[in-house]
Amino acid sequence: MKKKSKIGFISLGCPKNQVDTEVMLADVVKAGYEVTPDDTEADIVIINTCAFIESAKQEAIDTILDVNWLRENRHLKGIVVTGCLSQRYKEEIFELMPEVDAIVGVGDIEKIAEAVEYAYKNGGKKDVPKYSCVTLPENAPLGGDRVVTTPDESPFAKWALQMERQTRLLSDSEAGATKHTPNGSGAKPRAVCGGQRTRGSVVAGRVEGTASGSACARQRWVALCAEAKP
Question: β-strand 34-35 against 44-49: which pairing, if any?
């Protein structure tokens, strides 16, 4: 893979995911890649997912489908999925979500640069095996360099903020909150390379009603739950 290819990051879920994202940011920068805050300019997008509750799984799948729009409409080469979704559904994710080119488990984030290189070279190729590195979560190395993207707040303040966001997420889900639209209306903010961005801006200009819509995400989520092994 050529150096200075652009890597986009999307971090979903809990503060631990944000820290893991910061570690992966440092790893890809050390490997010589350029990190971009604009997913539409990225060659590879890394999506650090959560799969703790139903709405989190739906958001993760919807995000993957949204980002895949860039493969046909921009110059995206591949999608790397990390975090809980790849850990929990490692046996099912490639079959049910062929948009994904590589997965890395929560205990294997030190392999992110290797996964990025593989996805860049082989992303979208039908006859090439997908990249998978998912071992036990306890294998995760402690410490490591990070690109800090969070404000200088106390751990309690960060925890309280996250709990507030999760409460709003659950409330929105129960109330049938408005889904995202291409212009970002009705969208929930999320952290992308440390900034807050509405979901609609990830794929600015995507036409609503395509296969990347939320109904398709729901179908994928149901399929994952049906296929998941205990």
Answer: unpaired
- Alpha-carbon distance values, 68 to 49, 81, 111 (Å): 15, 12, 22
The parent domain of residue 102 ranges over: 6-227
Angle of helix 15-30 versus helix 112-122 axis, rounded to 10: 70
Whole-number Å distance between alpha carbons of 36 and 78: 15
Residues of the chain with pLDDT under 50: 1, 156, 177-214, 229-230
* Cβ–Cβ < 8 Å for 142, 123: no
Sign of CA dihedral 147, 82, 29, 142: positive
Q: What Rg value do the Cα atoms of the chain yield, rounded?
A: 16
| Predicted pLDDT at 88 | 92
Tally of domains within the chain = 1
- 122 near 78, Cβ under 8 Å? yes
Give the Å distances, CA to CA, from 130 to 2, 81, 174.
20, 12, 36
1 in any annotated domain: no
Any idea what the CATH number is for the domain that residue 53 is in? 3.40.50.12160
